[in-house]
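Trying the structure run again after the queue cleared.
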Amino acid sequence: MAGRLQDKVAAVTGGANGIGRACCVRFAEEGANVVVADLDAAQGAETVELVRAAGGDARFIRTDTTKESDCLAMVQTAVDAFGGVDVCVAAAGISWGGYVSGQPDPERSAEPPSARYIVEQPLENWEKVLDVNLTGVMLTDRAVARRMIEQARGGAIINIASIYAKRPNAGASAYSVSKAGVWMLTKIAALELVRHQIRVNAIGPGYVETFMTSGIAANEEMRSATLSEVPMRRMGTSLEIANTALFLASDEASYFTGEILHPDGGYYTE
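Done. Tokens:
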């Protein structure tokens, strides 16, 4: 039986770990070939092997999504290896200016608490988060959309936003603003690209167990306070987010564009 993404080609930024890796593997299980785009070559190579074990083929390309040339190279890799690109997940992102992708982030130990607020935050931290989380998504979407338009067979773009795209989080100003920007970018891109049969949607995950949230998991008081906001009283998994991305990438979501889905354990019900 053919999978939901049979013979499709997916490009996934942030594909070396976390939500991005889970999307790569889940898509492969449904018949897709995958371009794994990330800064971390070692973990990216691991994702490639996981994709192949899941039944798909994959290529890794080192990608800094804040550089347009890297985003264009990612797309060219998909074209050279697999003949084009049909699906994109823009999952590359950071939680704060000093975060290193693919590494545990225990309580932001290198950052003084006062530096998380607008009045004290170093400008370079603000600029770094906006550059990666918002401009990087725009450059990813643009590079992929240009190829999809040229191919003239439509496509699906999925941007990873956050629950904080809609709700302010004091002490995480740059992150919250960047994810709100991703949500608005998604809606604008959906309107601009609909005439090319390209669907653009977003996912706004709640608290998910990844390297980025390892500080929460390691601190019992912080974990308890965090989960008190979640009706399901647990963190989500990368697989649960990948399953949401699979739906949006598949023909099952053929009437979805300009939408955001929140796999968040009921966070927005309270």
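Residues 9-258 form a domain with the Rossmann fold fold (CATH 3.40.50.720). Worth checking whether this holds up in the mutant runs.
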